[in-house]
Amino acid sequence: MKRTIVLLAVLGMVMTACATEGGDSTTTTGDSGVTSTEAPAPETTTTEPGPSCAKEDLNLVTPGQLTIGTDDPSFPPWFDFDGGPSTGTGFESAVAYAVAEELGFTADEVVWTVVPFNNSYAPGEKDFDFDINQISITEEREQAVDFSDGYYTVNQALLGFSDSEIAGATSLDDLKGYVLGAQVGTTSLDFIEEVIQPDADPLVFDTNADAKASFDAGQLDGLILDLPTAFFVSAVEIEGSAVIAQFPTGDDEGEQFGMLFEDGNPLRDCVNQALANVDLDAIQDEWLSDVVDAPIIETS
Amino acid sequence: MTEATTPRREPGISPGRARRLAVHQRQRRRSLAIGAASTVAVFGTVGLVVANSPGWPTVRQTFFSWEHLQASFPEIWSGFGRNVRIFLIAEVLILVVALLLAVIRNSRSPFLTPLRIGATVYVDVVRGIPTIILLYLLGFGVPALRLQGVPNSQEFWAIVTLVVSYSAYVAEVYRAGIESVHESQRSAARSLGLRSAQSMQYVVLPQAVRRVVPPLLNDFVALQKDSALLALLGVQEAFRESQIYVARTFNFTAYLAAALLFLILTIPLARFTDYLIRREQKRTAGTSL
Amino acid sequence: MSPPLLSVDGIWKEFGELVVLKDVSFDLERHQVLTVVGPSGSGKSTLLRCLNLLEPIDDGQIRLEGVDISDPEFDPDPVRRRIGIVFQSFNLFPHLSVLGNITLAPRKVLRISRPAAEEQARALLSRFDLIDKIDEYPDRISGGQQQRVAIIRALAMSPDLMLFDEPTSALDPELVGEVLDVMRVLAAEGMTMVVVSHELAFAREAADRVIFMDAGMVVEDGPPGQVLEDPQTDRARRFLRLVQEG
């Protein structure tokens, strides 16, 4: 009896803690307290004179070394599956090394660290200089972290089995009756819930690997992934699957991948400068030209 | 010989008795007052220290936000229904399967030897494998085989995984219970002419099961929490719903909301377990070992 | 002439190296009451457990109405219905009420219907003045009452032979009497009984025969007047003196 009273008291305290002081509905974390050796960078992405982007002046986790984060395993066409991100193979790997070179780093000075996708865009201190991992730039995420300029415009795509019913879908409405799936916390999931709005709850997975396993086991009708990933899965990973459709976004610029930085990190501006000098089209031609023109389903 | 007479009680209360009563009452009141005061002092101090610490506003907003609690709750609540469904179904199956395993392991009939061996191997192997591995094997692996007639549903495989995993533990709990019933009970039953199986069914098992209700309830509480594993297969149960919310907003209150829902179930169950323990202790106190 | 109800013929029982029963033999006619006395460790309890086949014997024979029940290939369960046993520690089933305890075996073994079994239980309980405890659980009744229920539980199977293994040794002194009273009534009604006990007064009054055992052997065997008042052997004499002084 006494224990129950105590537990009820604790529960009461918790509820009181939540109830007192309304506060904002959206929250941001406090300042992540970036300690930088130079004055904080202005929140612009111009290449006007600001703090120096010379290699020795950069705000780095480990001086003299560029620490880049991405997930493990890392998949084509973004990275090399067997060799990992440091081989330079793959679109994002190539972009990362190109940016590094512009900043003045040799390939040896680039160090990769594993960052699970779900952790990357969460607020807080980061142990990498930037993370490149098919992370879409969104307003919500920008409240917790900073992004570079976009380096790739991404369309969401639908992966399904070519001999299944869903392969005949040609409009958003056609998709409402199916069980779809996506990874948690992704813009793909947002796309399902906000744009497609299927009748049945979608399946939501911790990782894309789980999502693919479930799809492969026939437990769902279609996976929403970014187009290049969907293409890779259909071409190489899961037999009988195909990119049923792609969905261009309505915005002018569309959904963009960006490199992710700790909130307030001045390195971001230097990376943007470097990125401006990188030939993204050439890199895209090299690594993403195979991406097939899947049928387009308009979303607006 | 005259019978001893019970001393007659004077009407009213003697001075000695009254004094005792008064002293006891005073002591009780004092204990209560001290208890209340020290509780308030300790919790109050802790509360004040926490509330005034520099990080508190951020922590409070991130973990204890009333807005986010309200906003996230409806989805989490509806997701929780899935958790409840699978652990209720799983628990019933576990209790049955585990009992079968325990009885098989306890049997002596030579006909049952292969079953006995199978049961022992099963229990040893399953107890050594993390449930999450089992879940992936059964929830993704078996459906991937695309065998005819094998169900595909996530809830089905989550229940199967939980039943496979927990039956091994619960079978051992039953076994301990069976072994804790003194041999003399079995002797008494056999002496009356009850056959071995009848002794087990009517005398040993009923006592064994009653004795192990507390550990069984503990396992049930663990099962309720493990229902969250369903999320790994993609189902939007309570934990997954809270995770989706957290991923969107970076506010962790949603996790707290999910946790509270689990607590609402597990705490009363823990109290009920205590009550049952006390009742069983009274029941078996007076009889033979 | 019909064979004796119980015939114990040269039985031996060993527990590993230890020989607990050595060449024990005696016969018991219907309606006879046999008391077995002796120091602890003399094998008295083991003897009883062998008689109702709870323990297998290593050599010798036990015959019930001429049939060898100790044969290893003999199915013991039907025999156990005919031999009732009452234990020192009562061994009531704690999860069943008094009624439940008494009716369990008649219903499951003898296949008597529930109403019939309950009626029989009521009759027995009334006879022994325990009817008001019929719905109580064993933990709520006194030791003496528990043992009397245990006796009734065994009687409910209508046994031919009742064995008593130190039935009052675990009881407080003031409760011993009520149990001995029940046993006296049973004896007077003609139940065939084997009683292992220290209660020599009971032996004197109710027993037809007394056996004195020591170290696994039958040392004395005769009417109570002889064995208890005027034992032939030193060992018996010494033991009886100790018991009487205690």
Give the CATH H-level superfamily of chain B: MetI-like
CATH superfamily descriptor of the largest domain in chain A: Periplasmic binding protein-like II
Note the run of SSEs of chain A as H and E. HEHEHEHEEHEHEHEHEEHH
- Major sheet details of chain A: 5 strands, mixed
What is the SS-derived class of chain A?
Answer: alpha/beta
Low-confidence stretches of chain B: none
CATH fold annotation of chain B: MetI-like fold
Number of domains of chain A: 2
Structural class of chain B: mainly alpha
Side by side, the strands of the main sheet of chain A go 7-6-8-5-9
User: How many beta strands in the DSSP annotation of chain B?
Assistant: 0
Beta strand % of chain B = under 5%
Quickly count the helices of chain A. 10
Fraction of residues in helix of chain B? over 70%
Gross CATH architecture of chain B? Orthogonal Bundle
Number of strands of chain A: 10
Overall pLDDT level of chain A:
83
Would you mind describing this structure in some detail?
Chain A has two domains: 136 residues, Periplasmic binding protein-like II (D-Maltodextrin-Binding Protein, domain 2, 3-Layer(aba) Sandwich); 92 residues, D-Maltodextrin-Binding Protein, domain 2, CATH 3.40.190. Chain A is 31% helix and 18% strand. In chain A, helix 2 crosses helix 9. The model of chain B has no long low-confidence stretch (mean pLDDT 89). Chain C has a single domain, classed as Rossmann fold (3-Layer(aba) Sandwich). The model of chain C has no long low-confidence stretch (mean pLDDT 91). In chain C, strands 6-7-8-3-9-10 form a six-stranded mixed beta sheet, with helices on both faces. Chain C has a four-stranded antiparallel beta sheet with strand order 2-1-4-5, covered by helices on one side. With 246 residues, chain C is α/β, with parallel strands linked by helices. Chains in contact: A-B, B-C.
Q: Which structural traits does this protein have?
A:
heterotrimer; B: 289 residues; mainly alpha; MetI-like fold; 79% helix; flat; C: alpha/beta; six-stranded mixed beta sheet; 24% strand
